[in-house]
Design a protein that fits this description.
By secondary structure, the chain is an alpha+beta fold. The chain is built from seven helices and five strands.
């Protein structure tokens, strides 16, 4: 049976938006876990997500998975940053894909939360995917439509 891992750090409604269904036990625990920095993964049956469904915005499939202890991270969700998470960063440099600026931002907006060391050790292809997601969040809706 094929499985998809989704981080418990996501609120239940955001998991539903990603097409991931979790059981009642997990729903009761998920709000309490949402603030935990290193939450365990919740596993959902892949049969619940159509194979031809488009990949949700903000999901990065890693070419080179990250190994953290006995856990392998193959997929990371990048969420839109709040204004406070941009503190100490330059939006102009972020919008140009500045490596140092993106490196500082990613630990603040990834689920599961990647450490600064993990971000610095990313495969260049994976880092480029993350940078693309960050740039997408910075574009206004009007720029994306036309």
């Amino acid at each position: 049976m094929k499985k998809i891992a989704a981080a418990a750090a996501l609120p239940v409604d955001q998991l539903a938006e990603l097409g991931v269904s979790i059981g009642a036990e997990a729903e009761a625990v998920a709000p309490a876990v949402a603030v935990a920095p290193a939450a365990p993964a919740i596993v959902a049956d892949a049969g619940e997500v159509p194979a031809d469904a488009p990949k949700p915005r903000g999901v990065v499939d890693l070419d080179t998975p990250i190994v953290r202890g006995s856990t392998t991270i193959a997929q990371v969700v990048v969420r839109k940053p709040a204004s406070g998470e941009l503190r100490g960063l330059t939006i102009g440099a972020l919008s140009q894909g500045d490596v140092d600026q993106v490196t500082k931002l990613l630990p603040r907006i990834t689920i599961p939360a990647l450490t600064l060391q993990e971000v610095k050790a990313l495969d260049p292809a994976d880092f480029t995917q993350f940078t693309g997601e960050v740039l997408d969040f910075l574009l206004p809706s009007a720029a994306k439509q036309g």
